[in-house]
Specification:
With about 400 residues, this protein is an alpha/beta fold. The chain contains 15 helices and twelve strands.
Length: about 400
C-alpha cells in the first residue's frame, strides 16, 4: 500500500485591488478554518510586499492568529523570503511559533518571488538564490538549538543561539520552494530538507518534476543528507463543481482580475493571453489548472503522481476565482470525492462490500434458513400450546 497522501492549500493570497483588504484577509482565516473542518492537513501562507494583489506581509503574524482559531491543521510560511531577513531573527520567530502552536508550524523558505520586493530593499535579484542558500545553511543548525558563528557579505552571526529549545525535535520541518529551475531542488538536497514545488503544474515545472527530484536526491547523497518523498509537496490550482459547465461559470467571478495581475503586473508567466473563456480553455488544456468536475481533479492527481514518481502532499493554490460559497464548495467536493482515492480511505469499505456481494447467495441462504427455522419453531410451539389447552379443558 502506498503512503497516505496529505492535502492542503497554498494561500498567497490573491485578492483584487477593488476589494476591501480587511474583509479579504478575514476570509483567508475562514478558509483555514474551513480546511480544518474538512480534514485538510496543511495551510501555507505567503509573504509579499508589493504589487497590491498578494497582501500578507508577515506569514508569521497570520499563522499566530490562525493557530488560535484551529486545533489540528499544520500552518506553514509559504514562503519566508530569506534574503529579506537576518537569519537569527527569522529563526527566533519561527521557533517561537513552534512553541505557540505546540508543533504545528512548518517553515517554508525561498529566495523571494516578486522582483519588485527585492528592488525596494536594494537587493540584487541575481543574488537572491545564493543569499537563500547562505541563510539556509545557518537556519537549520540554529533551529536545532546549535551555536552558530558565520559571516557573509550581508549577515553575520557570532556565537548565535536561540533562547528556547525547539518544541519539535530535532527542529521545525523546513521546505524549500522550487519553480522550474533546479535551485530549489539543489538547496533541499544539500541541506536535507523538504521540497515545495510551487510551479508543479506549469508546463516547465511539470516536465521537470522527476528531474528535480533526481537533482534533490543526488545533492543529498553528495552532502551526506537524506530526503523523503513524503515531505515533497506539489502545488496547483483547482476549482471543481458538480459539472464542468458550472465550474466554468463559477470562475468567471474572479478569474479576470487574476489574469490581469499575472498578465500585466507580476513577473511570473502564469496567465495565458486572451479573454476569460479563452483562458479557461488554455488553463485546462495546458494542465496548469483544473476547472471542471471531480473526475477532472482525479485525472490531474493521477498525472502528477505518474510524472513525479510519487509525492507526499498536494496543495491547492488558493486563487479566489469563484465567489466565496462556490470556493468553499470546491474544497468540500475535493475532500469528499477526490482525496479519499489517494488516501486509501475507503479501501476497507470497498473490500468489505465486495466480499459481502460475492457471498450474498450464501448469506441469503443462511438468512432464509434461519427465518424458516424460527417459523417452524414458532409453529411447533403453537401446536404444543393448543394441545396443552385441550388437555386442560378435558
Amino acid at each position: 500500500m502506498s503512503p497516505r497522501m496529505r492535502f492542503g492549500a497554498f494561500i498567497a493570497p490573491f485578492h483584487p485591488v477593488n476589494e476591501n483588504p480587511d474583509l479579504a484577509m478575514r476570509r483567508d482565516f475562514e478558509l483555514v478554518e474551513h480546511l480544518e473542518r474538512l480534514g485538510y492537513e496543511e495551510a501555507w501562507i505567503g509573504e509579499h510586499h508589493s504589487a497590491g494583489f498578494e497582501i500578507i506581509a508577515s506569514p508569521e503574524v497570520f499563522i499566530a492568529a490562525a493557530a488560535e482559531r484551529t486545533r489540528h491543521i499544520k500552518l506553514g510560511t509559504g514562503v519566508s523570503s530569506l534574503p529579506y531577513h537576518h537569519p537569527l531573527i527569522l529563526a527566533d520567530r519561527i521557533n517561537q511559533l513552534d512553541h505557540q502552536t505546540r508543533g504545528r508550524v512548518m517553515f517554508g523558505v525561498g529566495p523571494g518571488a516578486l522582483p519588485s520586493d527585492a528592488f525596494m530593499m536594494g537587493i540584487d535579484v541575481l543574488r537572491q538564490r545564493d543569499m537563500m542558500d547562505e541563510a539556509l545553511g545557518v537556519l537549520a543548525p540554529l533551529l536545532r538549538g546549535e551555536i552558530v558563528s558565520h559571516e557573509t557579505d550581508w549577515f553575520k552571526l557570532v556565537d548565535a543561539r536561540l533562547q528556547l529549545r525547539p518544541y519539535t525535535e530535532p527542529h521545525v520541518e523546513i521546505a524549500v520552494a522550487s519553480q522550474i529551475s533546479p535551485s530549489g531542488a539543489r538547496a533541499a538536497g544539500k541541506h536535507g530538507v523538504s521540497l515545495l514545488s510551487i510551479g508543479a503544474t506549469t508546463s516547465g515545472g511539470f516536465n521537470a518534476l522527476a528531474t528535480n527530484w533526481g537533482i534533490c536526491t543526488d545533492k543529498a547523497q553528495e552532502h551526506g543528507q537524506t530526503v523523503d518523498r513524503a515531505g515533497w509537496r506539489l502545488v496547483g490550482p483547482i476549482h471543481i463543481a458538480e459539472t464542468r459547465e458550472k465550474a466554468r461559470e463559477n470562475v468567471r467571478f474572479g478569474l479576470k482580475e487574476w489574469l490581469r495581475y499575472f498578465q500585466e503586473v507580476a513577473a511570473l508567466p502564469l496567465a495565458p493571453p486572451g479573454s476569460v473563456d479563452d483562458a479557461i480553455d488554455a488553463l485546462n488544456n495546458s494542465g496548469f489548472a483544473v476547472i471542471g468536475d471531480v473526475d477532472d481533479a482525479v485525472a490531474q492527481m493521477d498525472k502528477l503522481v505518474d510524472q513525479s514518481g510519487g509525492f507526499g502532499c498536494f496543495l491547492h493554490m488558493a486563487h479566489n476565482w469563484a465567489d466565496w460559497e462556490a470556493t468553499l464548495e470546491s474544497y468540500e467536493l475535493f475532500a469528499r470525492y477526490v482525496a479519499p482515492r489517494f488516501q486509501q480511505t475507503n479501501t476497507g469499505r470497498e473490500d468489505s462490500m465486495t466480499w459481502a456481494a460475492e457471498n450474498r447467495p450464501t448469506f441469503i441462504g443462511a438468512m432464509t434458513q434461519a427465518i424458516g427455522n424460527e417459523m417452524q419453531k414458532h409453529n411447533r410451539e403453537q401446536v404444543a400450546k393448543k394441545e396443552k389447552e385441550k388437555g386442560e379443558a378435558a
